[in-house]
Design goal:
The protein is mainly α. It has five helices and two strands; from the N terminus they run H-E-H-E-H-H-H.
Length: about 110
């Protein structure tokens, strides 16, 4: 989510002699927090939040970066064309609008500094 582990792994792979490192994620980039009970980072800590894919690629130090698309993920988890999958953490489109005061309270409790 923050890219710190990926960056370190890429450094170790390069130190081991790799000439190129390509990163493929089976998930779309996480950009938004979950307000429905999943304890994850705050929006400002996500590496993909407010950054382009190219910028993320540079930050973790890989030669190429590929993410699963939101559409591809939803298709993969749909059963017989039925989808009850919440993709809010990828799209920022929440099924139930979060109350701004509640969002602020959640982010404060998770240590968000603004």
């Amino acid at each position: 989510m923050r890219g710190t582990t990926s960056k370190k792994i890429v450094q170790l792979i390069r130190e081991a002699g790799a000439k190129e490192v390509h990163f493929a994620s089976s998930s779309p980039p996480l950009k938004y927090p979950c307000y429905y009970g999943i304890d994850m980072q705050t929006k400002g800590e996500f590496i993909a939040c407010r950054r382009s894919e190219e910028n993320v690629r540079e930050m973790i130090g890989v030669d190429s970066l590929t993410y699963q698309s939101v559409e591809g993920l939803i298709k993969a988890v749909s059963i017989n064309g039925v989808n009850n999958f919440c993709a809010s953490c990828f799209t920022g489109e929440y099924p139930i609008k979060a109350n701004a005061q509640e969002v602020q309270r959640i982010e404060s409790s998770r240590g968000c500094k603004g």
